[in-house]
Amino acid sequence: MLRFPGIIGRKLGMTQVFTDDGRRIGVTAVEAGPCIVIQVKKEATEGYNSIQLGFGQAKRLNSPEKGRLKELGNLEHLKEFRVQGDAFKVGDKVDVSLFQPGDVVDVIGDSKGKGFAGGVKRYHFKGGPKTHGQSDRQRAPGSIGSNTYPGRVWPGQRMAGHLGARQATVQRLMVVKADASKNLLLLRGAAPGGDKGIVFIRKAEKRK
User: Fold this and answer.
1) pTM assigned to the model
2) Is 14 within 8 Å of 27 (Cβ atoms)?
3) Residue 107 class from Cβ within 10 Å (0-12 exposed, 13-18 middle, 19+ buried)?
4) Sheet strand arrangement including 93-94
5) What burial letters (b/e) apply to 144-181, b meaning 16+ CB within 10 Å?
6) 148-168, pLDDT tens digit by residue?
7) What burial class does residue 117 get, using C-beta atoms within 10 Å of its C-beta: 0-12 exposed, 13-18 middle, 19+ buried?
8) Where are the beta strands (DSSP E) in 34-155?
9) How many beta carbons lie within 10 A of that of residue 194, not counting itself?
């Protein structure tokens, strides 16, 4: 089982590997870590135990960011993870050696942005009839509200709009391989987002 709640990484893309019995499976390659512990929160002071990790190299930092990171480096991506106890201290390194093949994790990232999309693509609407003279209704959303009651459009009505570029979580992906020498993590299945996107990998919260 995982001895650490999570890590920050960068999605490299998808590939395939073969198991010992000859089966081919698709995997997502993630450059995970190394991450630096930049802050430790304790229950006695903040009310809960957690640590904040930093990952990646930023081109430049403003004065508040430099003051927060101190001498830990120009870390670009920061993320807080809950922990049990206070076994970590500022400056500790976290890498993929904390993972073992067979571990189950959740992967959080931003989904691919699709731009402006209609109701059929965005919410899988059925669309209008394909015959009886309906030449321009094939991908129309249909009625969005009656004129008597409610006499308006309800807030939250599913309509055309921006699709993607939102936080998405893929649950229960199995760790196929963890190579600490290359900071490489292979996860079975697809992770959210495009190549080179930042992802957060945590211990799976749901049981099988």
Assistant:
1) 0.84
2) yes
3) buried
4) 75-82, 50-57, 35-41, 93-94
5) eeeeeeeeeeeeeeeebeebbeeeeebeebbbbbbeee
6) 998 999 999 999 999 999 999
7) middle
8) 35-41, 50-57, 75-82, 93-94, 104-110, 115-117
9) 13
